[in-house]
Amino acid sequence: MDFACLWLGLLLPLVAALDFSYHHQEEMEEFLKNVAQNYTSITHLHSIGKSVKGRNLWVLVVGRSPKEHRIGIPEFKYVANMHGDETVGRELLLHLIEYLVTNDGKDPEITSLINSTRIHIMPSMNPDGFEAVKKPDCFYTNGRENGNSYDLNRNFPDAFEVNNVVRQPETVAVMEWLKTETFVLSANLHGGALVASFPFDNGVPATGSLHSRSLTPDDDVFQHLANTYASRNLNMKKGDQCKNKMDFPNGITNGYSWYPLKGGMQDYNYIWAQCFEITLELSCCKYPREEKLLLFWDSNRASLIEYIKQVHLGLKGQVFDHKGNPLPNVIVEVQDRKHICPYKTNKFGEYYLLLLPGSYTLNVTAPGHAPHLTKVTIPKKSQDFSALKMDIPFPLKGQLDSIPVSSPSCPLGPLYSNLPSHSAATKPGLFLFLVTLFHILFK
Ligand SMILES: *[C@@H]1O[C@H](CO)[C@@H](O)[C@H](O)[C@H]1NC(C)=O
Ligand SMILES: *[C@@H]1O[C@H](CO)[C@@H](O)[C@H](O)[C@H]1NC(C)=O
Ligand SMILES: *[C@@H]1O[C@H](CO)[C@@H](O)[C@H](O)[C@H]1NC(C)=O
Ligand SMILES: [Zn+2]
């Protein structure tokens, strides 16, 4: 009898298995709270704000130190359901949470991932939109927008043109959240197409718009990131599965090449938050029947896990002064991939640079001091769960023995406004026209 109880107790999972159905706000909250209660040492549940209608914007953090950042542990995030009627990502992230917590200490890969990474998961950025959908539809519904009828993926500051929209509570919550952590890598989960799309979503001639694309100086890394996801999703990698006449070679695309948009979240992350983000379109049908959810989980699980591991690409470390104190606000960038808002060390003096194997020259700069150039080679076969670690002693010269804290942050204006502006004739006109005509909106 006693033995039987013990045996049963060991077999029962801590949390009743999550079913493959849609979880509305209350059920989602209950699931997240149960996970947080049952896995206290590796999870932290918090709300980053409220939607227009007062629903919590939940984030569950998974990691060995879930409540706070640890030096050398990169911060990763997934955000889903920013368009409330694009529902697959929302359920996938709930299943991902379950998969991570139930495999910790059992599956060596997941255990290593949790040991080396702090993973922030936001299953719904637009709970009001999700609840507003009365009749699930594969195409557009009013659930796309938030409770004030704003498209949240048009609601962020834009680097290329003025974006005069009223910033919504969900957008403000995300912008504030981005300031609280040094996020390194992210993906934003959508539906209505099947493709991994990478920055920029908007552009000017200086970023390639005359050639119907808009590329970042980190394009090699972004292509690698998008390929990492798409190549493990058998349908996505075929590239033309949605019958919307778009062929995406290998299942990836530059956002602008597909169709330009203003005020998107991925460009905002890359430009203002030092965080590389891509947009994942996970299902041809925006709101598929729940019988399909298991298939979506099966076809995305490997991609979701492998993508998180990419947060360990490249280089990381701390910048110190001659006394060994960490230096915040020091610009650390690769010489020929300057960001329009320079990437700086955080309050612990840490930097993280996502880079593919190769040789690079780092330019380490603090205001009032001469730039410090240093060469580094990232080997082909680097470790799986850690970027190459390189601490940088920074030779402070001159009167100052510290970095002025007043180093200006990047303005929220169109930073490319001094560059030649958009020319309507250079946009991928026909597709944009079709998109407008049929009101088919994805990202
Ligand atoms: C663990 O989760 C289950 C539901 O799956 C819940 O009933 C139980 O109270 C939770 N245990 C703890 C300790 O919170
Ligand atoms: C993960 O970290 C724990 C200690 O927190 C350690 O005991 C374990 O060996 C580590 N596992 C892996 C696979 O790195
Ligand atoms: C290093 O970066 C600083 C600040 O971004 C810049 O002013 C300087 O020209 C760069 N130096 C080199 C050699 O690239
Ligand atoms: Zn979308």
Put the structure in a nutshell.
The protein is of the alpha/beta class and 443 residues long.
Give a structural overview.
28% of the residues lie in helices and 19% in strands. It is an alpha/beta fold. The strands form three sheets. Strands 1-2-4-3-5-8-6-7 form an eight-stranded mixed β-sheet, sandwiched between helices. Strands 9, 11, 14 and 15 form a four-stranded mixed β-sheet that branches. The protein has a three-stranded antiparallel β-sheet with strand order 10-12-13, with no helix packed on it. It has twelve helices and 15 strands. The longest helix has 17 residues, at 293-309. A hairpin with a 5-residue loop joins β1 and β2 (56-62). It has two domains: 20-312, Zn peptidases (Aminopeptidase, 3-Layer(aba) Sandwich); 315-397 and 410-441, Carboxypeptidase-like, regulatory domain (Immunoglobulin-like). Bound molecules: 2-acetamido-2-deoxy-beta-D-glucopyranose (3 copies) and zinc ion. One 2-acetamido-2-deoxy-beta-D-glucopyranose binds next to β12.
